[in-house]
Design a protein that fits this description.
The complex is a heterodimer.
Chain A (H helix, E strand, L loop, with lengths): L6 H20 L12 E16 L4 H6 L8 E17 L2 E14 L3 E17 L2 E8 L31 E11 L5 E12 L14 E11 L2 E9 L5 E12 L2 E18 L5 E18 L4 E9 L6 H21 L2 H14 L8 E9 L8 E10 L5 E9 L5 E11 L11 E12 L1
Antiparallel strand pairs in A: 1-2, 1-18, 2-3, 3-4, 4-5, 5-6, 6-7, 7-8, 8-9, 9-10, 10-11, 11-12, 12-13, 13-14, 14-15, 15-16, 16-17, 17-18
Helix pairs in contact in A: 3-4
Chain B lengths: L1 H15 L7 H12 L4 E10 L5 E11 L3 E8 L7 E5 L2 E5 L6 E3 L13 H4 L4 H4 E9 L2 E8 L8 E7 L4 E8 L5 E12 L5 E9 L7 E11 L20
Antiparallel strand pairs in B: 1-2, 1-13, 2-3, 3-4, 4-5, 5-6, 7-8, 8-9, 9-10, 10-11, 11-12, 12-13
The chains are: A mainly beta, B mainly beta.
Chain lengths: ~425, ~240
């Protein structure tokens, strides 16, 4: 015998079904992107506006803008498009990264396209990879500087995480993993870097070939790297670095590099740019510390062995000063051209003197503002006492959108690195969208 | 008669003090194995929910081998894609494609923002990180009082409520060494992932330090997978996606 459902049972059934529907709808169990595709494409679009408040008394301003009309501020606009592509075919993987940048300043506008990376890897097992093509290498453990970055493009300590172009190399990567104690893992990365009129011109002359290698060990919970770079017409480079967590919130790292036979160009007493072959040790010591309130401190001391000492820096500034005066008196363009050459030789590295300190303090999500990270950076030249302070913030309010506001204040007296910078202060707003 | 008396006494003690028969660390090991096999791959969706209801989602591909090796790769959103985190014991590294090299990080840092920190996302077996000091049984659940085995573990003490029948966690309270409650994890939606893996598919997290905010982790595609040891090395971090 069947019976019709009672109203109470129907109401109960409806309530149960409603409850079930509500539960199922609480979270979406469909996870996007699980299905792997043999190709991927993506990138980012960035708009960057920069406002320079110029230091018209600074020697670097005077030698660069000697013919410019008097103006206290200058604007600059950059539009950057970066595209990433990846194709996987069995053990072969191809990767490409392009960088296109439109720049507009008060003097000119320019559109430039660069191929940052284009390489192929062949990978039959995790233990062995063969690679060829143009690729970004980042050797070293330092955040602001990398004395052992023998195959890195030079970093800008004011913007150390900025994307850079790679070098073209043929290389391999051998990895071995061991037990949980003692030597835990090891990897060896040899590289061959050819130089031609089209590739790696910064590393030598056409026809040269450089060899570089890095041996990595994870030994007693410490990262250790040993690296070398050898080649004609360039100094021999030997290096070692390390990194280790001392506590759950404290990491220490260091780098030591020895350069044998580098060319040191400096002004002699007669005001001529003279070249001398020298050897130098450079080193870096740093730490990263996280407080209970989510404040991260990055501190680094850098000794730049190839850098200029105080006497050489004084001669450099005196020379620039004299060149500017001579130009104003005589309007002789040669004075400025010579100053430009000397300036180029001295300022080859972003920080050209001997001893520097770096401190970055960042606070994750203050006042419960999710995805906001304000930070302040200090870079100090210990040889002349000048420094730059940079209060900045990054905010990611919605998925794939990143806003960065940076301000940089170089501070120092005359004849000091930051006192003679061409900007009195600089403000940047970056809006970056990832797709 | 003596034997009968002894058996009666034993039965009496077993009935009155059932906890005496339990070993908290054994339960913890069983919880670990019920949550996932020793070596496996899985996908996770992380959702950060703000007090106004707005949310941000991240998708992670994760590989784990043995008790102390785990690697996670962000596969979305585009701004995080390619970021990978490796943990070998207490060593932890982060690889960001634009930075181009793995950097050592601490287990207390957050790689996504929100309430989850690295140790939640790169969690090892509970039994590898914690020792059970005390066990209680109430309302069909075990309450395990866990103490970190070393000072490098993210939470000094954890209270874990475990369903006594399924031996799956129901709730976790994580405390700092000062005794302050840092966060609470709620395990929900027990689901059959095939291959004999039946476990909660959702972990909700809230924190008294971030009132009104909630983070949710949704699990999918948990599968046993053979993995070479070399996968868990910093040189392989940029290539982890090849294994998907």
């Amino acid at each position: 015998m069947t019976r019709s459902p009672k109203i109470g049972e129907i109401v109960l059934l409806v309530m149960v079904l409603s409850a079930c529907t509500a539960r199922a709808g609480e979270y979406d169990f469909d996870i996007p992107g699980i299905k792997k595709r043999p190709y991927e494409i993506g990138g980012n679009l960035e708009t960057r506006g920069i406002l320079h408040r110029l230091n018209r008394h600074g020697l670097l301003y005077k030698t660069k803008y000697y013919d410019a009309s008097e103006s206290a501020t200058r604007g600059e606009f950059h539009q950057i498009l970066e595209l990433n592509g990846r194709v996987l075919v069995g053990p072969l993987r191809a990767r490409i990264k392009t960088h296109s940048e439109y720049v507009e300043t008060y003097r000119h506008h320019d559109l430039d396209h660069e191929l940052y990376e284009a390489y192929l890897t062949y990978n039959t097992s995790p233990a062995f990879t063969l690679q060829t093509g143009k690729r970004v290498f980042k050797w070293g453990k330092g955040y602001a500087w990398n004395p052992v970055g023998f195959v890195n493009r030079p970093k800008d300590p004011e913007d150390p995480e900025r994307d850079l172009e790679g070098f073209t190399a043929l290389g391999a990567d051998f990895i071995r993993s061991f037990g949980p104690a003692g030597l835990q893992s090891l990897s060896f990365t040899p590289l061959i870097l050819p130089v031609s009129n089209h590739i790696n011109q910064e590393l030598g002359e056409s026809g040269d070939t450089l060899i570089a290698a890095k041996l990595y060990l994870l030994l007693y919970d410490t990262d250790l790297d040993f690296m070398v770079r050898l080649g004609p017409r360039r100094p021999e480079m030997y290096g070692i670095d390390f990194s280790r967590n001392l506590k759950e919130n404290l990491e220490v790292h260091g780098e030591l590099a020895y350069l044998r036979g580098y060319e040191h160009k400096a002004l002699d007493d007669g005001g001529k740019l003279a070249s001398q072959t020298s050897n130098a040790f450079s080193f870096l010591f740093g730490l990263r510390y996280l407080t209970a309130s989510d404040t991260t401190l990055i501190f680094e001391y850098y000794h730049h062995g190839e850098g200029y000492d105080s006497g050489e820096a004084d001669r450099f500034y005196s020379f620039l000063d004299q060149s500017c005066r001579n130009y104003l008196d005589t309007k002789n363009q040669q004075q400025i051209d010579r100053a430009g050459k000397v300036r180029q030789a001295y300022l080859r590295d972003k920080n050209f003197m001997k001893d520097y300190l770096y401190l970055k303090v960042s606070q994750k999500e203050p006042f419960d503002i999710l995805y906001l990270t304000p930070y302040i950076t200090l870079i100090a030249n210990l040889n002349d006492g000048s420094f730059s302070v940079s209060p900045s913030a990054t905010y990611r309010p919605v998925t794939n959108l990143e806003l960065t506001l940076r301000t940089i204040f170089p501070i120092g007296g005359s004849m000091t690195e930051y006192g003679e910078k061409q900007d009195r202060c600089r403000m940047e707003l970056r809006v970056k969208y990832y797709f | 008669m003596k034997k009968v008396l002894m058996v009666a006494v034993l039965i009496f003690f077993a009935a009155v003090f059932p906890a005496f028969a339990l070993d908290g660390n054994d339960i913890l090991k069983k919880v670990d194995r019920n949550l996932n096999p020793e070596t496996f791959e899985m996908y996770r969706k992380l959702i950060n929910i703000e007090p106004d209801g707005s949310r941000k989602e991240f998708v992670l591909y994760t590989l784990k081998k043995g008790a102390d090796r785990v690697v996670s790769l962000f596969i979305s959103p585009a701004s995080e894609k390619g970021r990978a985190t490796l943990r070998v014991g207490e060593n932890m590294w982060l690889y960001i494609p634009s930075v181009g090299k793995p950097i050592r990080i601490t287990s207390l840092q957050s790689i996504t923002g929100g309430i989850f920190n690295n140790s939640d996302i790169m969690r090892l077996d509970y039994s590898a990180e914690y020792n059970c000091e005390k066990i209680e049984e109430r309302d069909g659940q075990y309450l395990l009082h866990l103490k970190a085995r070393t000072r490098t573990v993210a939470y000094d003490r954890v209270k874990m409520w475990v369903h006594s029948e399924e031996l799956l966690p129901a709730k976790l309270e994580c405390y700092a060494a000062s005794g302050m409650l840092i966060k609470t994890l709620h395990f929900k939606e027990i689901k059959d992932f095939d291959n004999g893996i039946v476990r909660p598919a959702v972990v909700e997290t809230d924190s008294p330090l971030h009132k009104g905010y909630k983070s949710v982790m949704i699990f999918a595609g948990i599968k046993r997978k053979k993995l070479a040891d070399e996968v868990f090395t910093i040189n392989y971090l940029s290539r982890v996606g090849n294994l998907r």
